[in-house]
Design brief:
Elements lengths: L2 H24 L12 E6 L2 E4 L5 H20 L12 E2 L8 H13 L3 E2 H21 L3 H4 L3 H14 L1 H4 L23 H10 L1 E5 L3 H18 L7 H8 L3 H7 L5 H4 L20 H10 L1 E5 L3 H4 L1 H14 L4
Parallel strand pairs: 3-4
Antiparallel strand pairs: 1-2, 5-6
């Protein structure tokens, strides 16, 4: 916050504390003119009000709370921009990338700053790191049959992958289904692990400029026909003559990158599984404007040991139970 608002918060907070302390002191004395234990002259439904002081334990509790509030505001952030005498903070603020986060952790360590989230990460790594390290020494295929490993992998998935692929891993529009055997970059454990470690960036160009409006309709008809869909045969035949521009990624037979061992991540067009929707309108939209998909890299976020375990879980999802 700006200096003005920081000062405003500090002044207002300290003024409130001073007022509270004054009230506590003022209430220690009897200013009513009525002796303690005597009637104040008020009666409500037969209940008479007596001039009794607060119980001592209440008074002590109020003073203890006041002392704690002063200590807390002095030691921890809370008074405007004042950082507190302990140098404590809940997390590194203002970071927008993994690199910045790592640098912030180093800076905090060098400056002797206590960052609560960093300490929690350190404690978690100390406790659970050896467990992940032990699983990382085992083969993915073995882990895919290990109930304990899969349980941990499921938690990793729920925390990091379910936002896109769904809690049931069946994906959604633009996000692949992980429970079938339709893989854009291959479903072997090594290929899955490569995808998780380094991420994937896929880009299908838009063909409207090259094909024109009619050409897009013809290409759409041919693409749909590859999976056995009923289409206008005349348009499909015209689209087939233009399909060479797509074959570099999808192959001349339209079976995609995996079938032809290509690195593009181009989907199989013959299996009637559609990442962005299989209606004529959706496929036409893909041909006309192209599609761009990004899978983030998890190597620097989770580390290789956790990715190894996550690989086993993802691989297990598409295997016959």
């Amino acid at each position: 916050m700006t200096s003005f608002w920081s000062i405003w918060v500090i002044v207002l907070t300290l003024a409130c504390l001073a007022l509270i302390f004054g009230l506590l002191i003022w209430n220690l004395k009897n200013y009513t003119g009525v002796e303690e234990g005597e009637s104040c002259g008020h009666e409500f439904d037969g209940i008479e009000e007596l001039n009794n002081p607060l119980p001592k334990w209440w008074t002590y509790m109020f003073f203890a709370t006041f002392v704690w509030s002063v200590y807390y505001l002095a030691m921890y952030p809370g008074l405007g921009n004042f950082a507190g005498l302990l140098g404590w903070t809940s997390s590194n603020q203002g970071v927008t990338s993994i690199e910045q986060s790592k640098q912030a952790v180093l800076n905090a360590q060098e400056n002797g700053q206590w960052v609560q989230l960093d300490k929690e990460f350190e404690a978690a790594e100390e406790r659970f790191g050896p467990i992940f390290k032990a699983f990382a020494q085992q083969d993915v295929l073995a882990l895919a049959k290990n109930s304990e490993a899969l349980e941990i992998g499921q938690r990793l998935y729920a925390q990091n992958c379910a936002q896109c692929h769904g809690s049931d891993a069946r994906g959604g529009l633009g996000f692949p289904n992980l429970t079938d055997k339709d893989w854009l970059y291959g479903g072997h454990p090594d290929q899955i692990k490569e995808t998780l470690l380094n991420g994937r960036v896929a880009a299908m160009p838009g063909w409207e400029a090259a094909l024109g409006e009619q050409g897009v309709k013809e290409m759409t008809a041919y693409v749909l026909s590859l999976s056995g869909r009923k289409v206008n045969q005349k348009d499909a035949d015209a689209g087939k003559s233009k399909f060479a521009m797509c074959a570099a990624c999808h192959g001349m037979d339209g079976k995609g990158s995996v079938a032809h061992n290509l690195p593009f991540g181009a989907p199989d067009l013959t299996d009637n599984i559609w990442l962005y929707g299989g209606s004529q309108r959706a496929v036409e939209e893909s041909v006309r404007h192209g599609r761009a998909g990004v899978m983030p890299a998890w190597k620097d976020i989770l580390g290789e040991d956790k990715v190894h375990l996550l690989t086993a879980y993802v691989y297990s999802l598409s295997q016959d139970k």
